[in-house]
Write a structure and sequence with these properties.
Layout: H1 7-53, H2 62-86, H3 91-98, H4 100-108, H5 115-128, H6 140-166, H7 171-190, H8 199-224, H9 229-236, H10 239-251, H11 257-276
Helix pairs in contact: 1-2, 1-7, 1-8, 1-10, 2-6, 2-7, 3-6, 3-10, 3-11, 4-5, 4-6, 4-11, 5-11, 9-11, 10-11
Length: 286
């Protein structure tokens, strides 16, 4: 008998996989630092996707490169900013603040007055996790970097629409990830940060890439084939809560009541905008 996951369990497993990957990445920071951890994830992800989809780089048209390069730069920058934020603030807060990116895209695509409420909820949520509020385990740099990651996520979504227009299937995602790897490699070349190239470190980096990219991408594709994009977006609103739970279980990160309330507000804003936003055909976040 052939086993096949149903859409909802597939999506929940995808969210768990992404956040477990982020938690394992944070455990790697004391050895490799956020920069090298991000570069390892991106490079191993590029290698995995290249082996799976086998893009023929020498046969790409100029318009395809013009779409893939900025898409890859946004993807690489998003991942690095998120990891630098994760070094400074808890996982649940970082994910909640980063969600401002897709929220912004959804709000820009909507013309309903009700969406102002979702924007207000998201803003209040972010204010509740700022260092000048009751958030004693957050700092300005961490929140700012998470916001940068969110803005780059918004750019990634919009640029991904162009990629989906000029590439067929998932080839564009693979080419974009290769472009991301090429974009972030100079950062480690010119950075004073160094890493010990031990088998344990490389294996952990490979595991982070698999948990954060290859596995959730496959599971999300299973879900997207069976449920509407709007439903997918609403369910993805659970991700900040999943991140907070993983941060608590795997990293011992405890959040204050105000921070938990902030995450709930961001989830409500995300679910509300997903119900009203226009559908954007773009590759899934990796």
């Amino acid at each position: 008998m052939r086993f096949q996951l149903r859409p909802l369990p597939s999506l929940l497993l995808a969210m768990l996989s992404v956040q477990y990957g982020a938690a394992f990445a944070k455990r790697l920071f004391p050895v490799a630092g956020p920069l090298w951890t991000g570069v390892l994830r991106i490079c191993f992800s590029a290698l995995m996707l290249a082996l799976i989809f086998r893009p023929r780089l020498t046969h790409l048209r100029r318009e395809q490169w013009r779409a893939a390069i900025p898409y890859g730069i946004a993807l690489g920058g998003m991942n690095l900013c998120f990891y630098f934020a994760l070094e400074r603030i808890p996982l649940g807060i970082a994910v909640a603040v980063e969600f401002t990116g897709p929220l912004l895209v959804a709000l820009l695509g909507s013309q309903r007055l009700l969406d102002l409420l979702w924007a207000v909820l998201a803003i209040v949520g972010i204010l509740l996790v700022t260092p000048w509020s009751a958030s004693h385990n957050a700092n300005a740099a961490g929140v700012g970097l998470a916001l940068c990651a969110g803005l780059l996520w918004a750019a990634y979504i919009l640029l991904g629409y162009r990629v989906s227009q000029v590439f067929s299937g998932s080839t564009g995602v693979a080419v974009g990830m290769i472009a991301a790897a090429l974009a972030v490699l100079p950062a480690v070349v010119f950075s004073p940060a160094r890493m010990r190239f031990e088998p344990r470190v490389l294996l952990t980096g490979f595991g982070v890439a698999a948990l954060s990219s290859a596995l959730p991408y496959t599971l999300e594709m299973v879900a997207l084939r069976a449920i509407p994009a709007r439903t997918f977006g609403i369910l993805m609103s659970l991700e900040p809560a999943v991140a907070a739970a993983c941060g608590w279980m795997l990293l011992g990160e405890r959040l204050y009541p105000a921070q938990c309330f902030a995450i709930v507000l961001v989830m409500m804003a995300s679910a509300g905008t997903s119900m009203a936003a226009r559908r954007i055909d773009s590759p899934i976040e990796i």
